Amino acid sequence: MSRRGDLAICDTTRPYAFRYDTAFRTVLMLVPRAMLPVRPEAVRGLTARRLAGQSGAAAVVGPFLRSLGEQVRGCAEPATTGLADGAASLMTALVSEGLDRAAPAEPGHAMMLRIRAHIDSRLPDPDLTPDSIAQAHGISRRYLFKLFAAEGLTVAGWIRTRRLERCARDLASSVAAQQPIGMIAARWGLLDGRHFSRVFKTAYGRTPRDFRRRALTEGVPHGRISTEADG
After folding, report:
1. Could you tell me which residues are beta bridge partners of residue 47?
2. Which residues touch 8 (CB under 8 Å, ≥6 apart)?
3. How far is Cα 57 from Cα 52, in angstroms, rounded to an integer?
4. 156-179 as b/e, with b when 16 or more CB fall inside 10 Å?
5. Mind listing the pLDDT tens digit for each residue in 99-156?
6. What b/e string do you get for 36-57 counting C-beta neighbours within 10 Å, with b at 16 or more?
7. Are 66 and 25 in contact (CB under 8 A)?
8. Strands 26-30 and 226-230, how do they pair?
9. Of 115, 125, 127, 155, which sits most exposed with the smallest number of CB within 10 A?
């Protein structure tokens, strides 16, 4: 039986439905896949289940989401961007805790979640390296590489991808329209402007300047979090 404050995770790429036996009020948060550093198969075992909201990460995430649903419409865009990052980090923590409880025999999944959340929180740091990541999690550099290799990834490639995603989001934001492209890149730890332009074009098929122009004139969508309250 569900209680006030309980949470549930749904995957919108799969069929799902909500059923209520009494009057209710629900806050629904839609998180673009790119903002949640979790493999779909890792989350599958946590979907469509009641997550008790009285303890653990859920006790933190629940009140935050309720407040976000009530206040986000009155926030300016710079604030909503920060709140979106915070919400994605909290959701990552919630999933990480759920995986720890559901599959303690497979610590690699939960470790990767913690590592990815750590990377996301430190993207602005140009000194974010495999060595610093391994040290922060009490593991060897070799084991760190092994965890990423198991998912067909590299540590450097993942850091670069997440930084480029943040840059693309800011380039598409009207709030940052007057900020130099080099400043945006540096804000996310990419200090070499020439290198940034090259890897950005490889990833998005356009130079940062062309990407920004198209995003601002044609309204190309970029990742965001939306909330809805139902009653």
Report:
1. 9
2. 47, 48, 49, 50, 51
3. 10
4. eebbbebbbbbbbbbbbbeebeee
5. 666 655 455 777 888 898 899 989 999 999 999 999 999 999 999 999 999 888 999 9
6. bbbeeebbeebeeeebebeebb
7. no
8. antiparallel
9. 127
Q: Output the pLDDT for position 229.
A: 44
Distances in whole angstroms, Cα of residue 155 to Cα of each of 82, 110, 202: 25, 16, 18
* 3-state SS, residue 29: strand
H or E element: which one contains 61? helix 56-71
Secondary structure class of 47 (helix, strand, coil): strand
Closest CA to 28 of 79, 91, 108: 91
Cα Rg, the chain, nearest whole Å: 19
Question: How many CA atoms does the CB half-sphere of 71 hold within 13 Å?
Answer: 11
Retrieve residue 158's tokens.
């993942």
CA distances from 187 to 40, 123, 124, 171 (A): 29, 9, 6, 12
Residues in the chain: 231
- Angle 86-90-95 from CA coordinates, rounded to 5°: 150
Three-class SS state of 39:
coil
Alpha helices in 75-231 (DSSP H): 77-102, 107-121, 130-136, 141-149, 155-171, 181-187, 193-204, 208-218
Q: How far is CA 68 from CA 10, 35, 198, in A?
A: 19, 17, 37
